[in-house]
Amino acid sequence: MVAEGVVGKKRFRENDTNPDSNMKTTIMLLLAISALAAPNLAAKSKPNETNAPADPGWPRQRTNEQGSLIYYQPQVDTWTNFKDLDFRMAFSLTPKGGKEIVGVLELQAKTDVNVDDHSVLLRDFKIKEVKLPGSDPAKASQLDQAVRSFLPPNHTVVMALDRLVATVEKSETPALVEVQNDPPMIFVSNTPAILLYVDGDAVKADIPATNLGFVVNSNFPLFFEKDSEKANYLYTGQQWLKGASMDGPWDAAPTLPADMTKVANDPKWEQMKKPILAPSAKGKPPRVFYANKPAEVILFQGQAAYANIPGTHLSYATNTDADLFVFNPTKEFYFLSAGRWFKATTLQGPWTYSTPELPPDFANIPSDSPAGRVLVSVPGTDEAKDAVLLAQIPTTVEVDQAKAAAEAKVAYDGEPEFKPIQGTSLTYATNTSEKVIKVGDVYYLCLNGVWFMSANAEGPWTTAQSVPKVIYSIPPSSPVYNVTYVTQNTTPQGTVQASYTAGYLGTFITGVAVGAIIANGSGYYYPPYYRYPVGGYPIYRPYPITYGVGAYYNPSTGAVGVGRGVYGPYAGAAGGAAYNPYTGTYARAATAYGPNGSRTVAQAYNPYTGTYAATRQGSNAYSSWGQSVVSNGNRSAYTQHYSNANGTVGSIQGSQGGAAVGASTKYGNAAVAKTANGNMYATHDGNVYKNTGSGWSSYNNGNWNSVNSSANSKNAQAQSFQNVGANQAAAQQRAQSSQRSGQSAQSRSSGSSEVDRAAQNRQRGASESQRFQQASRSGGGGAGGRGGAAAARGGGGGRRR
Asked: What sections of 372-529 are H helices per DSSP?
């Protein structure tokens, strides 16, 4: 097997068929076990990596020799193929020496999306129409040209993807995946605990010249004495435990077997030297839960504590990282795991899948509640619809065909072995970590989101110009199903473009009668691959797992997570939770390992793709190829719009309630401004509305006139909370909470006027954008929130926002 990834821009490869090399890198994984016990690990940016600035907010202002134009956040009409955007913007024009004039711009633009950092570049502007409600027709032409001068075709705008997605009408039903929804094993503890997971039946291997062996397919270092069936030794990352069997009971180990010294001094086990020879940590050992199938741990800090959620009949658990609720009328527990809801009458179970019959009160959870992040997994909510749309947005690159092909390598454990893919005429390679699929007499390789082809299973490989349609018939029950989310084609210019969506990295769109949602993992159990080379340690290759001990990176939501330790004679990954800035879930410790050391959650291992290159800071499944092999046009957005502004960036605060953050560029002065006039909205009929703090007003011929609206006074008050940057998003969160209080889920999704709906969308997008930016800056460590699998690591629960 070849494990590939990046450390910064550095590429590494490991050949698993070499037993000596295997064992050296095997133990690198064990170093991370100590990291699992740490309360926080801050993600680090890669060297030389460009970090995009946060969306500075709206409205934005431009000045030139004709005056000043303030234009407000785009309101989307259509977004075709996530490339062609038709949208409206309210604006106010103040000509030099003249009075403010308000109007509507109808525009078209091209979009380049960077899913990893949730940014969108709007370029190639085309103004279709300038509407000036009630203006003097004699001056209309002059004003029209003045407005157009501020937004030339070469103008670019970068905005947060969350803001854009929130305004898109979700009218089309996405393609759904029939995932499995069988409940995991669910353990509960009121004291520190860990989950000892063995992937199926234990695979044991002897350690030569000792009386010891180790379990190849466990997520924690697990040793045993060969002459005693009741002497097992488990390293938790902090201390050694001894147990009569893998399922316990486990107690602190007073001493280790004498042969452990031989293991510590063996170069192949170098990374275990310190844990073996250093004194064991004192104190009461954690509780150990044993599972040989996917599992979760609900870990409380002391006795379970719950808080009521206003406006609902729900309570949520306040002293656990898990998303755990009680529906008070029935006293039933609801637990969210991997995007799926399970319920039980007691915490001891049995648990059953319950997403289709989730009580309606879940949709009424206020978005700013500590429990509000679960709205993304509540069918029918705006948050769920946004997440589903995000999961459909592709990441696209252009491939340097020659360089990419030269990099494409596949290593097999022995001669290539292939197994049929059920329900198809295809076969896939079982004794390699790469995704090699045989179609007829041709072999196709999907490596880091790029397709290659060859007449031989071992290459040489050439970059594929297209992909056979039959590959996209692979069912979810296959461990290579995720490649069906990678497409490739040749453009009219002769270049090759490769694209993937969220399914490639393990997040799938599923659904129930009331709406689509996203699920992490397919829910199927893919048995691991084993091989016993002569004279070496067993080769163990796991496949992705959905619950608790699974690992994934979700480009659509920014989720990063590794939930199992992969260890044996090669590098791997360990951890216990996911980081999802969309929902607020975070992983306090998740680490990938390889010959060049370990990396934090920002570079987490992804078993769906076999890479170590996933990060929220702008890289993706393609990043291990480097910019010399693939190019992501989204990178240029930062050079065009931010990095090379040809001037200074600063902020100002006005005495009349105005504020701005801006830069001087060769196209004129640009700024992000909050005006004393508040926010403005453009409706389809060409009118402009704003909220005065006591209700909606529409603009006509220089005057603002009060209008009736379905919004209540709380909504009116909410609209007055406007600010820029982080303060704006925080205010938007407060506004959204105020607006939603007392409203049912049904009234939020229908029945409101066009401006009410536009205001809700704008507030939600600002809130989610701010949440993502906070998460990116914090790197996932200690950002707040909960994650069901995080509890398996023991220790304390997460901080709340």
From this structure: 382-392, 401-407
The Cα–Cα gap between 613 and 447 comes to 13
Pairing of β 212-215 and β 529-531: unpaired
Least Cα distance to 544 among 503, 583, 509, 516 occurs for 503
Burial class (CB in 10 A: 0-12, 13-18, 19+), 669: middle
Alpha helices in 393-454 (DSSP H): 401-407
What is residue 352's predicted lDDT score, i.e. its pLDDT? 98
Cα gap 770→367, rounded to integer Å: 13
The residue type found at 581 is P
In whole angstroms, give the CA distance from residue 155 to residue 187. 55
For 558, the token pair is 């920014």
pLDDT in tens, 373-414: 889 899 999 999 998 998 898 888 888 899 889 989 998 988
What is the β-pairing status of strands 287-291 and 193-197? parallel
- Residue 610 tokens, joined: 């076999």
Helices (H), 698-744: 713-719, 725-740
Residues in CB range of 14: below 8 A, 6 or more apart: 2, 3, 21, 25, 570, 571, 594, 595
Which pLDDT tens digit goes with each residue over 78-124?
999 999 999 999 999 999 888 889 999 999 999 988 777 788 889 99
Range 203-208, long-range pairs (CB < 8 A, 24+ positions): 203/530, 203/538, 203/540, 205/537, 205/538, 207/259, 207/263, 207/266, 207/269
d(CA 429, CA 431): 6
Question: What is the C-alpha separation between 786 and 577, in angstroms, rounded?
Answer: 9
Amino acid letter at 201?
A: D
**Do residues 100 and 132 make contact, with C-beta atoms less than 8 angstroms apart?**
no
pTM of the model: 0.78
Amino acid at 463: T
Give the DSSP letter of residue 757. Answer: H
Q: Is the pLDDT of residue 13 over 50?
A: no
Spatial CB neighbours of 359, under 8 Å, sequence gap ≥ 6: 313, 314, 327, 334
Q: In whole angstroms, give the CA distance from residue 623 to residue 8.
A: 10
CA gap 777, 782 in Å, rounded = 11
Q: At 334, give phi and psi (nearest 5°).
A: -125, 130
Question: Which residues on neighbouring strands pair with residue 297, listed in sequence order?
Answer: 187
